Amino acid sequence: MKPVAYVRATTVTEAVAAHGGRPGAYYLGGGTNLVDLMKLGVETPHMLVDIARLPLGTVDELPDGGLRIGATVRNSDLAAHPAVRARYPLLSQALLAGASGQLRNAATTGGNLLQRTRCGYFQDLGKPCNKRVPGSGCGARDGVHRDHAVLGHSPHCIATHPSDMAVALAALAATVTLQGRGGERAVPVTEFYRLPGDRPDRDTVIQPSELITGVLLPAHPAGLPSAYRKARDRASYAFALASVAAVLEVVDGLVRHVGLAFGGLAHVPWRAREAEAHLLGAPPTMENISRAVDAELAAAQPLRDNAFKVGLARNLATDVLSRLADRT
Ligand code: SF4
Question: How far apart are CA 278 and CA 289, in angstroms?
C-alpha cells in the first residue's frame, strides 16, 4: 500500500498553494484518465489535490461575444450547452464523439485537455517507453504502431494525442487559461501542446503547480459552417484513427476564414496552417480543397503500418471542407 495525501480545495488559490509544484502532486478532476493510470502504476502521485469543487463549473458569455468555459465543466454538459450547440457545433460534435456517455458525465474540460496518450506501451510497465521512463526507448516504433503518429513525430516518440475536444478547440483558435504560483497566463491551444522531440515525457507547456482554470472561445457567429468528423475502428468508444475539425467562412465566393485541424495524426492537435494558407482568398472548389489538404499532408512521415492514415485524413478533410463549402 502506498500512502497518497488527499486535499479537497475550495478555491483556485488554495488548490495552487496545496499543490505547490511539488513532484508527485497532481490535480484531480473527474479522474477518468488519472485514476486509470494510477491503477496501472503509470502515474504514482504522492498527493492528490481535488479540484472538483472549485467554482469553475460554468460556461459564461464574454463581452466580446466569445465564451469562457470553466475547467470543471463536464464534457456532457459542455456538449449540450445551448450556446455551444448554436455557435460552436463542431465542439459539441467532438465532445460527443469522445469516450462513452458515463465517462463524459464525469470528465472535465481541464482533464480532457490533459489526458495522456493511449499508446499501449505507455500503459504497460513491462515495456520500454520514453514518455513514461525517459531514456528507456520507444517500444512502438518497431512494434505495434498502427494507431500512431504520421506527422511531427520524433525518433523518441510516435504517440498521438487522444482528445477529440482539443482538435475542435485548435480549429477554433481557443485559448487555455492557467493559474500558477507566479500568477495567471493564457496560452493558445495550438501552443499548449508540445511535439515530442527529445522530451516526449512532457505533453504540454504547463508548468509545475499550474492549474487549468478554463478555456476561452473567440466570438463565433451562429450559423458559421463548422464540423467535426472522426474515423475510428468501431462506431463508439474508440479513439480516432484520424479526425478533422473545420470552420469555413466564404464571402462572395472566396474563403474569408478557415480553421482546420487534424486529430489522431500527431502528438498534438494538428492545426493545418499550410492547408489554410492555400485556401484563404481562394474559391472553395474541390480542386482547391484537395490541393490545400495535399499540401498539408505532404509533411506526413508514415511508419511501417500506418500509411493508411494519410489517405484517410485526406479523404475526411476534403469531404468535410467541401460539404461546408456547399453550405455557404
Ligand atoms: Fe512511449 Fe511514445 Fe513510444 Fe508510445 S510512442 S512507447 S508513448 S515513447
Answer: 8
